[in-house]
UniProtKB/TrEMBL annotation:
One Pfam family cited in the UniProt record for this chain: HI0933_like_1st
Classification via Gene3D superfamilies: FAD/NAD(P)-binding domain, HI0933 insert domain-like, Translation factors
Classification via PANTHER family: OS12G0638800 PROTEIN (PTHR42887:SF2)
InterPro entries, sorted: BaiN-like, BaiN-like_dom_sf, FAD/NAD-bd_sf, RsdA/BaiN/AoA(So)-like_dom, RsdA/BaiN/AoA(So)_Rossmann
Coiled coil start-end: none
Cofactor requirement: FAD
UniProt keyword annotations, A-Z: FAD, Flavoprotein
Protein name in UniProt: Oxidoreductase with FAD/NAD(P)-binding domain
Record domain RsdA/BaiN/AoA(So)-like Rossmann fold-like: where: 5-377
Organism for this UniProt entry: Escherichia coli
Location of the RsdA/BaiN/AoA(So)-like insert domain: 188-339
Amino acid sequence: MERFDAIIIGAGAAGMFCSALAGQAGRRVLLIDNGKKPGRKILMSGGGRCNFTNLYVEPGAYLSQNPHFCKSALARFTQWDFIDLVNKHGIAWHEKTLGQLFCDDSAQQIVDMLVDECEKGNVTFRLRSEVLSVAKDETGFTLELNGMTVGCEKLVIATGGLSMPGLGASPFGYKIAEQFGLNVLPTRAGLVPFTLHKPLLEELQVLAGVAVPSVITAENGIVFRENLLFTHRGLSGPAVLQISSYWQPGEFVSINLLPDVDLETFLNEQRNAHPNQSLKNTLAVHLPKRLVERLQQLGQIPDVSLKQLNVRDQQALISTLTDWRVQPNGTEGYRTAEVTLGGVDTNELSSRTMEARKVPGLYFIGEVMDVTGWLGGL
């Protein structure tokens, strides 16, 4: 049986970065993954350009039942440290909105960077390998793989969550945690589009592809200001993905489709200046024409001129466009979710080392833990 100082299971971002650091610190490291290539989810991120970090990383942008857990890790390795690494590898990047950093070229550059860092640490890769069993004794851990048995002193689980099963996601990490007596919190899809109840979906499907700036508020008061996208299945876009992590089944969300407009003032000013102008054309100054036309067809926007718009209908219109109350039917689930909420209870882990308190030598890192960041490189 071949032995290593450390075995890391999962060749995603967390697994490769951990392997590289351990290898460069002089440890003999084996990195195992069930895929053909490392970093498959990285390649999908940021529209293929990898939103690799954010200029405004802060603990408040992470969800966990233990909200203080991530503070230590974020303080010990910051976004600036990762940017330095990206710069060292000569990867050109740019900032989009809200501090989001993307590669100028391709997400493959980030994968290549992490693989290169692993190679500098002489990390051994074993891809297309399934871990059949894990056992622990006084010498460490023994892993049965398809085709070989390996052992180690330190075992790191970096197998991620359940999102994007097409890229190999599985509950493996949760099963290992439970095997060794660690608590695993219930999981659900996060950063995921909403589906709608059939009547509303049928009304809005013709708007598929229409995007609009918005402010979306969850019932718990969490607010996100980003674009909303109408789809054939419901609602998506950055604002919806963000709020989905805070939404619970049965709850409503409030959507402001005109976050940059004082609608009452705007309508009053336009009425004084252009009393005979249609309400539809007036609203089309700030909203997509397709959206205005559909809302008028649905009776949400009166087919009148500005001078014909009475006070009651104006107040109803303002409510419709700035406090549109939607009760999602659900989400699209793990198939399209970018992250998994829940996971290994962080109260079971050291916030400094990620080591399981009950099982010396066993570590959990990355999305398998109950720590989930916002959209945008967090």
